[in-house]
Amino acid sequence: MCEGGAVNEDWEDRVAAAWASFADYPQERAEEFRGVIEGLVAELPAESPLGPFESACAWDSTGHSDRAVPLYRLALARGLSGYRGRRARIQLASSLRNTGQAAEGVRLLTPELDAPSDELDDAVRAVLALCLSSLGRDREGLALVLGALAPHLPRYQRSMAVYARALTAPEA
Fold this sequence. Notes:
Layout: H1 9-20, H2 30-41, H3 50-61, H4 65-77, H5 82-98, H6 102-109, H7 121-134, H8 138-149, H9 157-168
């Protein structure tokens, strides 16, 4: 059990180690991997938002978006915030798209475009672009992806940013 019911560095290290070993679990061992994660989740207080988040990640990563969706929602409803909260919104939107609910994914991620910037900005745009594409809004999705890619290019950053904006600008 996590000391005093709170997450400690040891628990965080063990969760990180479990995820670092994910590649060691081929699809036929997916249940075993989920068991490792569930063992760690069992150490958390019953109402912790981290439990459903980690469980959702395990289901999602082993090809079960349908099982992940309600767990991501529960984690967010329990107050998951900060970096993990943003990850949960990104991953929930992706799972929603995978389960035929791309419009809900767009509604969930659109506010993230105005959230404080962090290393997840490009992931927000990539998943949002996929959701938009699933809705037949390919130009908007491409604009997001080009806009996210532009700053990483060794050259052409300005022109790619202009092209990205032009994809969704009203026609003159």
